[in-house]
Amino acid sequence: MNTLHLALAILALLVTPGPTNSLLALAGARRGVLMSLPLIPVEMVAYLVVVTPLLIWGAPLVAALPVLKPVLAGLASLWVARLAVTLWRMPEGTGPSIAPVTARSVAVTTLLNPKALVMGLVLMPVLQAPVTALLVFVLVLPPVSLLWITLGAGLLARAGRWLNRGSALWLAALSLLLAARAMAG
């Protein structure tokens, strides 16, 4: 795999809907694009906190302790389920005063996002140049995050009263998927 192939693989992985992208889209819908931009560096740092050690030490560790993957997937499932319940219980409406998306929720969700495992254990090690792999990731993530925020601001903002419930149902489905993966090992 060369650098271009890695960039395309990371792009494909990051652009797929998931818990972090759902929060970014919801932030865009609630706060608008400009007010949501500070969430991008939060997401970046959270991913790097997970991906960097995985890239450097992860493969040997997971080979030695295969129970780590389902445990991490289980933790991710619980966090996403918590987000879904929180969104379901939120009052309807719009505006920054009730925006459920915080830097903390984006950080924790991203730290537990299974995409980080895939990037750090599967995609990036193939390049065998950790610094280059991390640089590719750092260049690909911001435009993808901005896309999700913009989609939220454009499409979800029009969803009105169904925004919280729809987002909660989506996150609940993701939580169930993660739980199934955790149980499957």
UniProtKB/TrEMBL annotation:
Top-rank taxon, per record: Bacteria
Chain segments annotated as transmembrane: 37-59, 131-156, 168-184
Keywords: Membrane, Transmembrane, Transmembrane helix
Designated name of the protein: Threonine/homoserine/homoserine lactone efflux protein
Organism: Fuscibacter oryzae
